[in-house]
């Protein structure tokens, strides 16, 4: 099984290295037979090849079973016509990765505002309020005059249905509770379409306990009673914002993993950004990246019916728990003093078969 590795920018190469140390160990332990291929992207590629996403990268992603992508420092990229292509957005769009799955779980012993939080945000990923995703041609953000700026938000029945399908599948595999989060009281057509489509899909599934919550109320409720929620399905930007909130509630941005998945492809991407303020100092927390890789293995295991991939993912998740439970096993963002690379080595050493 071939996986493509794209290290990204700032802390990207550091946290991806730590994740690869864990991945190569779990590969050997579970006999996964993974083949890792690397391709240069981001600011390093811009310097060497004049573009953040050199030709052939997309083809390599298509030809791989999965992609491991470090965060990108997008704001440091030049305009697209000067070589600054958004790698993540391009891959997500071309591979039609419509589901951004972002779990937040408190980790034993890790100081957190909501230590018992355990939920999954299922975020629509291909439309919504993102200027690069709403139009066939041109940008979804434009300025009719110098003093007026407009943005178009796209919501489709099909886009809403397929993300709801994914959320229902995940809810059925957990507690069966699903919250549909929207703002249909103000955006009655767009969010109304999203809500109605999600409820229609949930009804087809049956057996789920489905509720709707307005997004602003959800922000408050997640702080007040985070344990009341299990699976949350929502539109693109609401999901992006709420998942930063839930990651922080669970202990910090460095703990928030995610995968972007479609029907045939998936990429592992930490939910946080490239954190240039701490880059190159061996202090970034690689947990989110390691756990994202674990999520990718689990997704691949489910898709290809390969139980050992799922077991390897569980082993990685448990090893991260054990590493974080040790106060000396934590990176500075969690009050520890361990470096990024040592954290990866520590997690790799804790892997085991049961
Ligand atoms: P983006 O817009 O790309 O999501 P952002 O501006 O939201 O990026 P992040 O890069 O996600 O910002 O991070 C915000 C801050 O959180 C960083 O400046 C950093 O201090 C901290 N942070 C993020 N990820 C980590 C991590 N893995 N380990 C430690 N600290 C982190």
Shape: globular
Helicity range of the residues?
40-55%
Trace the largest sheet across and list its strands.
Answer: 2-1-3-12-11-4-5-10-8-9
Here the CATH topology of the largest domain equals: Isopropylmalate Dehydrogenase
* Class from secondary-structure proportions: alpha/beta
Number of domains: 2
**What would the average pLDDT be, to the nearest integer?**
96
Which small molecules are bound?
adenosine-5'-triphosphate
CATH architecture of the largest domain: 3-Layer(aba) Sandwich
Number of strands: 12
Largest sheet: 10 strands, mixed
Walk me through this protein's architecture.
With 354 residues, the protein is an alpha/beta fold. It contains eleven helices and twelve strands. The protein has helices at residues 12-30, 42-49, 57-63, 87-94, 157-173, 190-205, 215-224, 236-249, 287-304, 307-325, 340-350, and strands at 2-6, 35-38, 66-69, 99-105, 118-124, 141-145, 148-151, 177-182, 209-214, 231-234, 259-261, 266-268. The strands form two sheets. Strands 2-1-3-12-11-4-5-10-8-9 form a ten-stranded mixed sheet, with helices on both faces. Strands 6-7 form a two-stranded antiparallel ribbon. Helix 1 links the parallel strand 1 and strand 2. Helix 1 (12-30) packs across helix 9, helix 1 crosses helix 10 (307-325) and helix 7 runs parallel beside helix 8. It binds adenosine-5'-triphosphate. The site of adenosine-5'-triphosphate has 12 residues, from loops.
